[in-house]
């Protein structure tokens, strides 16, 4: 055996033995920032787009689900989980039943109708209906192209109904970007509920992309009389909250427009989760807090995603469904 090789091996063994006798290097745990103490209300809102009060509401609801059972290894606290990742996706089903459900209480429905009526005197309205596209990455596979919409980007076409205060009452996030708004509506649970008269004489207001139904009133394509003009004006003004709700929602969570880089099932969960957060913020009156300005490229992304063209339904055979509302507005002239 080569003497130099033997000497090198001996030195390695001696160095290893010497290390065994040395104290183990102590692990260093950096102090984590307490964001509730670090930032005042304005700075906190600018960073997280939710107030401290709103985050605490979510914490109270799901802390027991996400809290570590021990403090070993300086486990991340529930508050840190919320602020870093909005880690309540796994609990969205329970929260959805509380914060994202269509009302069936007659008193609640009546109050919603009153609020809508106060906008432009349109009667019986319980919700404003529309769809919006949420940008996603290509899902891959043989069926990827069904997620490509008319603007040629991949998306999920999300149907939503909101009240006059911009609170979502129903959100459907399972349809591909190529799906037409009317198809999504006619295959939804809420459509069946209205068709079966579960909500009495309540109606929804939709745009021209929806079929005219006794429970879904759309605007006239051609206006010929003052009463028809007043009907259209009232219909559009009363339906406007859904457009505003989409705007607030996407500016609070720009990822809905810049692109969700998750698989489709997780993207669908994320959409529902952000809708729930939007509702919690709305209930807590956060819509009166001005969201901080977004970079120009994000504003452009929001506008681009929002302007996906849709087919117009020609409802000439069902115009009689609008006539009673046109006649109603004629009496208001």
TrEMBL record:
Q: Name one GO molecular function term.
A: nuclease activity
The record places domain DDE Tnp4 at: 129-279
- Signal sequence range: none
Q: Keywords on this record?
A: Hydrolase, Metal-binding, Nuclease, Nucleus
Q: Which family does it belong to?
A: Belongs to the HARBI1 family.
Q: Which organism is it from?
A: Macrosiphum euphorbiae
The protein's location, in the record's own words, is: Nucleus
One cellular-component annotation, GO: nucleus
Name the chain's protein.
Answer: DDE Tnp4 domain-containing protein
Pfam family membership, one: DDE_Tnp_4
- Cofactor(s), names only, from the UniProt record: a divalent metal cation
């Amino acid at each position: 055996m080569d003497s130099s090789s033997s000497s090198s091996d001996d030195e390695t063994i001696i160095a290893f033995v010497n290390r065994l006798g040395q104290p183990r290097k102590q692990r260093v745990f950096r102090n984590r920032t307490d964001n509730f103490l670090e930032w005042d209300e304005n700075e906190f809102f600018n960073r997280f787009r939710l107030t401290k009060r709103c985050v605490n509401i979510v914490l109270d609801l799901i802390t027991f689900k996400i809290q570590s059972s021990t403090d070993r290894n300086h486990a991340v606290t529930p508050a840190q989980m919320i602020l870093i990742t909005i880690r309540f996706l796994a609990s969205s089903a329970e929260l959805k039943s509380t914060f994202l459900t269509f009302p069936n209480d007659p008193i609640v429905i009546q109050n919603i109708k009153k609020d809508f009526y106060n906008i432009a005197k349109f009667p019986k309205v319980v919700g404003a209906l529309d769809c919006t596209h949420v940008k996603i990455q290509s899902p891959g596979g043989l069926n990827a192209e069904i997620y490509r919409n008319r603007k040629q980007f991949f998306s999920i076409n999300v149907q939503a109904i909101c009240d006059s205060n911009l609170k979502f009452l129903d959100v459907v996030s399972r349809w591909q970007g190529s799906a037409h708004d009317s198809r999504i509506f006619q295959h939804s649970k809420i459509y069946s509920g209205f068709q079966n008269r579960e909500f009495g004489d309540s109606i929804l207001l939709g745009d021209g992309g929806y079929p005219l139904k006794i429970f879904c009133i759309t605007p006239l394509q051609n206006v010929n009389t003052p009463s028809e003009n007043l009907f259209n004006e009232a219909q559009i003004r009363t339906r406007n909250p859904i457009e505003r709700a989409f705007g607030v929602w996407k500016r609070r969570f720009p990822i809905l427009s810049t692109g969700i880089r998750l698989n489709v099932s997780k993207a669908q969960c994320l959409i529902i989760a952000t809708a729930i957060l939007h509702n919690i913020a709305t209930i807590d009156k956060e819509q009166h807090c001005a969201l901080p300005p977004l970079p120009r490229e994000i504003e452009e992304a929001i506008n681009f995603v929002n302007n996906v063209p849709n087919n117009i339904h020609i409802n000439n055979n069902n115009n009689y469904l609008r006539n009673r509302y046109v006649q109603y507005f004629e009496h208001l002239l």
